[in-house]
Amino acid sequence: MSVSLTGKVVEIYDEGSDRIGIVEFHGRRRPVYLNLVPEAAIGNKVRFHAGFATDLVSTDETLEESFVSQMIPAEPVAPHLQGPYRILSELDSRQLRKLLPLVEEKFFGSGAVIFHSGEKSKYLHLIVAGDILLEEDTVAQPVQITILRTGDALGWSALTSDATTHFQARALSGVATLAFPGAPLRALCEQDNELGYALTKRLLELVTGRLDAVRLRLAGLH
Predict the structure, then answer these.
(1) What stretch(es) of the chain map to CATH 2.60.120.10?
(2) Taking the model in full, what pTM does it have?
(3) Residue pLDDT, tens place only, 175-190
Protein backbone atom coordinates (compact mmCIF):
# COMPACT_ATOMS: atom_id res chain seq x y z
CA MET A 1 0.00 0.00 0.00
CA SER A 2 1.21 3.49 -0.75
CA VAL A 3 -0.45 6.63 0.54
CA SER A 4 0.31 10.33 0.63
CA LEU A 5 1.07 11.78 4.04
CA THR A 6 1.80 15.24 5.37
CA GLY A 7 4.70 16.25 7.58
CA LYS A 8 6.87 19.15 8.65
CA VAL A 9 10.34 19.72 7.22
CA VAL A 10 12.73 19.86 10.18
CA GLU A 11 16.08 19.58 8.37
CA ILE A 12 17.42 20.01 4.84
CA TYR A 13 20.72 18.80 3.42
CA ASP A 14 22.28 18.17 0.00
CA GLU A 15 23.08 14.76 -1.44
CA GLY A 16 24.94 15.36 -4.68
CA SER A 17 22.68 17.48 -6.84
CA ASP A 18 19.60 16.59 -4.78
CA ARG A 19 18.07 18.36 -1.77
CA ILE A 20 16.84 16.04 0.95
CA GLY A 21 14.37 17.05 3.62
CA ILE A 22 13.88 15.27 6.94
CA VAL A 23 10.12 15.27 7.44
CA GLU A 24 8.47 14.73 10.82
CA PHE A 25 5.00 13.15 10.89
CA HIS A 26 2.98 11.24 13.47
CA GLY A 27 5.99 10.94 15.77
CA ARG A 28 8.23 9.56 13.03
CA ARG A 29 10.91 11.07 10.81
CA ARG A 30 11.68 10.18 7.22
CA PRO A 31 14.08 11.54 4.58
CA VAL A 32 12.33 12.62 1.38
CA TYR A 33 13.53 14.19 -1.84
CA LEU A 34 12.53 17.82 -2.44
CA ASN A 35 13.00 17.68 -6.24
CA LEU A 36 9.34 18.44 -6.92
CA VAL A 37 9.15 21.25 -4.33
CA PRO A 38 12.55 23.02 -4.57
CA GLU A 39 11.08 26.03 -2.76
CA ALA A 40 10.47 24.01 0.42
CA ALA A 41 12.19 25.38 3.52
CA ILE A 42 12.64 24.25 7.11
CA GLY A 43 9.32 24.67 8.92
CA ASN A 44 7.20 24.11 5.81
CA LYS A 45 4.60 21.38 5.68
CA VAL A 46 4.77 19.07 2.67
CA ARG A 47 2.72 16.23 1.28
CA PHE A 48 4.96 13.27 0.43
CA HIS A 49 4.60 9.97 -1.36
CA ALA A 50 7.08 7.13 -2.03
CA GLY A 51 10.03 9.13 -0.73
CA PHE A 52 9.29 12.36 -2.61
CA ALA A 53 7.63 15.55 -1.38
CA THR A 54 4.97 16.31 -4.00
CA ASP A 55 3.32 19.53 -2.75
CA LEU A 56 3.63 22.28 -0.18
CA VAL A 57 0.74 22.31 2.30
CA SER A 58 -0.54 25.65 3.58
CA THR A 59 -0.56 26.08 7.34
CA ASP A 60 -4.33 26.50 7.40
CA GLU A 61 -4.93 23.27 5.49
CA THR A 62 -5.98 20.44 7.79
CA LEU A 63 -5.70 16.83 6.80
CA GLU A 64 -7.17 14.04 8.88
CA GLU A 65 -4.50 11.38 8.52
CA SER A 66 -4.39 9.69 11.89
CA PHE A 67 -6.43 6.76 10.58
CA VAL A 68 -4.14 6.48 7.56
CA SER A 69 -1.06 6.39 9.79
CA GLN A 70 -2.54 3.48 11.71
CA MET A 71 -3.00 1.55 8.47
CA ILE A 72 0.66 1.84 7.47
CA PRO A 73 2.63 -1.29 8.42
CA ALA A 74 5.64 -0.80 10.65
CA GLU A 75 8.76 -0.59 8.51
CA PRO A 76 11.07 -3.56 9.17
CA VAL A 77 14.14 -1.42 8.64
CA ALA A 78 14.82 2.29 8.34
CA PRO A 79 14.56 3.51 4.75
CA HIS A 80 17.69 4.76 3.02
CA LEU A 81 17.93 7.30 0.24
CA GLN A 82 20.31 5.40 -1.98
CA GLY A 83 20.24 3.67 -5.36
CA PRO A 84 16.51 3.22 -6.02
CA TYR A 85 15.68 6.79 -5.18
CA ARG A 86 18.60 8.05 -7.22
CA ILE A 87 17.21 6.21 -10.24
CA LEU A 88 13.99 8.15 -9.80
CA SER A 89 15.61 11.40 -8.72
CA GLU A 90 17.43 11.66 -12.06
CA LEU A 91 14.11 11.83 -13.90
CA ASP A 92 12.64 15.26 -14.55
CA SER A 93 9.68 16.53 -12.53
CA ARG A 94 7.16 15.82 -15.31
CA GLN A 95 8.28 12.19 -15.51
CA LEU A 96 8.29 11.80 -11.73
CA ARG A 97 4.73 13.06 -11.40
CA LYS A 98 3.64 10.41 -13.88
CA LEU A 99 5.51 7.56 -12.19
CA LEU A 100 4.80 8.17 -8.50
CA PRO A 101 1.05 7.43 -8.63
CA LEU A 102 1.88 3.88 -9.77
CA VAL A 103 4.17 2.96 -6.89
CA GLU A 104 3.21 0.60 -4.08
CA GLU A 105 5.33 0.44 -0.94
CA LYS A 106 5.86 -3.20 0.04
CA PHE A 107 7.37 -4.76 3.15
CA PHE A 108 8.68 -8.32 3.59
CA GLY A 109 9.75 -10.04 6.77
CA SER A 110 13.02 -11.96 7.03
CA GLY A 111 12.75 -15.28 5.18
CA ALA A 112 9.77 -14.25 3.06
CA VAL A 113 9.81 -15.36 -0.58
CA ILE A 114 9.16 -12.34 -2.77
CA PHE A 115 8.75 -14.49 -5.88
CA HIS A 116 9.68 -17.98 -7.11
CA SER A 117 11.50 -18.68 -10.36
CA GLY A 118 9.25 -19.21 -13.35
CA GLU A 119 6.49 -16.92 -12.06
CA LYS A 120 4.94 -14.18 -14.14
CA SER A 121 6.88 -10.97 -13.52
CA LYS A 122 4.34 -8.74 -11.82
CA TYR A 123 6.39 -5.96 -10.24
CA LEU A 124 9.56 -4.03 -10.77
CA HIS A 125 10.97 -3.70 -7.24
CA LEU A 126 13.45 -1.03 -6.19
CA ILE A 127 15.04 -1.98 -2.88
CA VAL A 128 14.73 0.81 -0.34
CA ALA A 129 16.19 -1.16 2.57
CA GLY A 130 17.26 -4.70 3.43
CA ASP A 131 18.98 -7.61 1.66
CA ILE A 132 17.46 -10.04 -0.85
CA LEU A 133 18.98 -13.35 -1.95
CA LEU A 134 18.56 -14.43 -5.57
CA GLU A 135 18.87 -18.19 -5.86
CA GLU A 136 18.31 -21.00 -8.34
CA ASP A 137 15.48 -23.01 -6.78
CA THR A 138 14.74 -25.50 -9.57
CA VAL A 139 17.42 -27.93 -8.38
CA ALA A 140 17.46 -30.25 -5.36
CA GLN A 141 19.71 -27.90 -3.40
CA PRO A 142 19.07 -24.16 -4.02
CA VAL A 143 22.14 -22.36 -5.39
CA GLN A 144 22.96 -18.80 -4.35
CA ILE A 145 23.30 -16.47 -7.33
CA THR A 146 23.83 -13.09 -5.68
CA ILE A 147 22.66 -10.89 -2.85
CA LEU A 148 20.84 -7.68 -3.72
CA ARG A 149 21.03 -4.73 -1.37
CA THR A 150 19.70 -1.22 -1.00
CA GLY A 151 19.89 0.45 -4.39
CA ASP A 152 19.36 -2.70 -6.47
CA ALA A 153 16.36 -3.56 -8.62
CA LEU A 154 14.69 -6.91 -9.14
CA GLY A 155 11.82 -8.12 -11.25
CA TRP A 156 12.94 -5.80 -14.06
CA SER A 157 11.50 -8.27 -16.59
CA ALA A 158 8.09 -6.88 -15.54
CA LEU A 159 8.82 -4.24 -18.18
CA THR A 160 8.06 -6.91 -20.82
CA SER A 161 4.58 -8.32 -21.18
CA ASP A 162 5.19 -12.10 -21.15
CA ALA A 163 8.41 -12.43 -19.16
CA THR A 164 8.80 -14.75 -16.19
CA THR A 165 11.22 -14.56 -13.27
CA HIS A 166 14.56 -16.35 -13.69
CA PHE A 167 15.39 -16.93 -10.01
CA GLN A 168 13.76 -17.11 -6.61
CA ALA A 169 14.01 -13.93 -4.51
CA ARG A 170 14.05 -14.35 -0.73
CA ALA A 171 14.38 -11.70 1.96
CA LEU A 172 17.46 -12.15 4.16
CA SER A 173 16.28 -9.42 6.52
CA GLY A 174 13.35 -7.09 6.83
CA VAL A 175 12.97 -5.60 3.36
CA ALA A 176 11.18 -2.50 2.04
CA THR A 177 10.69 -1.90 -1.67
CA LEU A 178 9.06 0.50 -4.06
CA ALA A 179 7.03 -1.79 -6.32
CA PHE A 180 5.82 -0.72 -9.76
CA PRO A 181 3.11 -3.00 -11.24
CA GLY A 182 4.24 -4.19 -14.65
CA ALA A 183 1.18 -3.54 -16.83
CA PRO A 184 0.61 0.12 -15.83
CA LEU A 185 4.36 0.78 -15.97
CA ARG A 186 4.62 -0.66 -19.48
CA ALA A 187 1.60 1.35 -20.62
CA LEU A 188 3.10 4.55 -19.24
CA CYS A 189 6.46 3.91 -20.92
CA GLU A 190 4.69 3.27 -24.24
CA GLN A 191 2.70 6.48 -23.90
CA ASP A 192 5.77 8.52 -22.96
CA ASN A 193 8.76 7.27 -24.94
CA GLU A 194 11.17 9.73 -23.30
CA LEU A 195 10.23 8.47 -19.85
CA GLY A 196 10.47 4.86 -21.01
CA TYR A 197 13.94 5.45 -22.46
CA ALA A 198 15.19 7.29 -19.36
CA LEU A 199 13.93 4.61 -16.97
CA THR A 200 15.15 1.70 -19.11
CA LYS A 201 18.59 3.29 -19.51
CA ARG A 202 19.03 3.63 -15.74
CA LEU A 203 17.79 0.10 -15.10
CA LEU A 204 20.17 -1.31 -17.72
CA GLU A 205 23.07 0.49 -16.03
CA LEU A 206 22.07 -1.12 -12.73
CA VAL A 207 21.58 -4.59 -14.22
CA THR A 208 24.91 -4.36 -16.08
CA GLY A 209 26.65 -3.58 -12.81
CA ARG A 210 25.00 -6.61 -11.23
CA LEU A 211 26.08 -8.90 -14.07
CA ASP A 212 29.66 -7.67 -13.73
CA ALA A 213 29.57 -8.45 -10.00
CA VAL A 214 28.23 -11.97 -10.63
CA ARG A 215 30.87 -12.57 -13.33
CA LEU A 216 33.65 -11.59 -10.92
CA ARG A 217 32.17 -13.85 -8.23
CA LEU A 218 32.03 -16.81 -10.62
CA ALA A 219 35.60 -16.14 -11.73
CA GLY A 220 36.68 -16.30 -8.11
CA LEU A 221 35.13 -19.76 -7.73
CA HIS A 222 37.38 -21.29 -10.40
Answers:
(1) 99-220
(2) 0.74
(3) 988 899 999 999 999 9
